[in-house]
Design a protein that fits this description.
424 residues, alpha+beta, four-stranded parallel sheet, four-stranded antiparallel sheet, 13 helices, 22 strands, 31% helix, globular
Length: 424
């Protein structure tokens, strides 16, 4: 992307402020999308190293915990370098993107709606009060006695932190004994300094809700002036019945019957409207069990990790380009998903320790249908599996004529990969 110098006030190109945290996988994809669209980019981050590759004047050091302070910084910056859009490349910066966009009257989901979806308990309350199908749920403070709480609930149930993503800290329990162990494990996660800095007071509470059976599915879309445009419905073919809920394979198009997919879209559209998500990307997670469809979560952002790579739109657009087009008020409704099927496997971390070697990568790439493989954790780094961990080993990509062929290719390629981890 074009980069402004510290002494320049470019006004000939629309400028996008791209916000991303140190751990974001998405920055490169958004920067490439901005380059293709010919827009100027300023990068905002909370981590100086993440900004090191950008010229002075093209970067803005921002925190995501003090939203009011960082929003004021963005408004002052925009007085000299006018912004046409603010886009967050991940969860942490979505509240700031919404607040600053609101202050500058830019296209974005309202701040109140973003705050609601960032708090899983508050989202449940709002949807339940409106009559949407919902599991029973309650919130509890971590300073309560877990055995006493366990004596008052039904099993099986799921314990969740209020504001972490990627299934971190999410545990299913079937007995009071499992409940107490899971509680203590999640408390250990929420007491970590980085988590407390990220989610503040929400680190002191837990959401407890009924376990919902069924197959998981995801929906990717963009809401424009209150109207949902569905970009993809993605199957999760692996059973996710706990005790942990690590995502592995995503495949699109979905293999659910057309009527079920229509019902999925309808539910997400109505939930988004009720929560106030009116202008921006959304990523929803649902469970389908016979004729019951239940929303698990809905986020005011696009799909995480490197998963967006499997979504391509004719004539030649990425998901990130469609998101930028929407934010900038550019046409984005005429782009259709490319035909055929595509999928991604988020490579799981099999054990805790130090990553020493990943072998079989070339053999995995030789599987018909496999079109890419990225290992995103460097050798020598410490790796931590779910529920404590918040990263994947990497991403495996496939493309073929049918979803079955894609799924089979991903499984065959993964079987050729061996991960060697040394106990720390």
């Amino acid at each position: 992307p074009r980069r402004s110098s510290g002494n320049s006030k470019r006004r000939d190109l629309p400028r996008v402020l791209l916000l991303f945290a140190r751990t974001s996988y998405r920055a490169e994809a958004f920067l490439e999308a901005a380059r293709r669209l010919g827009v100027d980019v300023t990068v905002g981050s909370n981590h100086r190293q993440a900004l090191a590759d950008f010229a002075p004047g093209a970067t803005l050091t921002l925190g995501f915990t003090d939203v009011a302070r960082s929003s004021a910084t963005i408004v002052r910056f925009a007085a000299d370098y006018p912004l046409a859009a603010i886009v967050a490349a991940g969860d942490d910066f979505t509240p700031l993107a919404a607040a600053a966009s609101e202050a500058l009257e830019l296209t974005h989901h309202p701040s109140q709606a973003v705050r609601c979806t960032r708090n899983k308990a508050l989202m449940r309350e709002r949807l339940s009060e409106a009559g949407f199908s919902s599991p029973w749920f309650r919130t509890t403070r971590l300073d309560e006695e877990p055995a006493a709480v366990a004596s008052k609930i039904k099993f099986p149930c799921v314990l969740k932190p209020l504001a972490l993503s990627a299934s971190r800290g999410v545990i299913r329990v079937d007995t009071p004994e499992q409940f107490v162990r899971a509680w203590q494990r999640i408390r250990g996660i929420l007491e970590q300094d980085d988590v407390v800095r990220r989610i503040g007071r929400l680190a002191s509470e837990l959401l407890i809700e009924a376990y919902l059976p069924g197959r998981e599915v995801a929906l990717e879309g963009i809401v424009s002036a209150g109207e949902l445009r569905t970009l993809a419905v993605l199957d999760k073919p692996d059973l996710m019945d706990g005790p942990f809920f690590e995502e592995t394979i995503l495949v699109t198009p979905s293999r659910f019957p057309e009527q079920v997919q229509e019902d999925i879209v309808s539910l997400v559209s109505r939930c988004a409207a009720h929560l106030g998500l009116s202008d921006g990307p959304i990523h929803a997670e649902l469970r389908v069990d016979a004729d019951r469809i239940s929303l698990l979560e809905i986020a005011p952002r696009s799909i995480g990790g490197r998963c967006s790579r499997i979504l391509r739109f004719k004539p030649d657009e990425s998901l990130e380009e469609l998101i930028l087009r929407h934010s900038l008020g550019m046409p984005h409704d005429d782009f259709l998903r490319e035909p055929g099927a595509a999928g991604v496997m988020m490579l799981p971390i099999p054990a805790a320790g130090v990553l020493r070697e990943v072998v079989g990568l070339e053999a995995a790439l030789e599987v018909p249908g496999i079109e890419g493989l990225e290992i995103t954790i460097p050798l020598g780094h410490t790796v931590v599996p779910l529920p404590e961990g918040n990263r994947y080993l990497g991403f495996l990509f496939a493309r073929a004529e049918t979803p079955d062929h894609v799924e089979n290719a991903l499984r065959a390629a993964h079987a050729r990969i061996e991960v060697r981890i040394e106990e720390a």
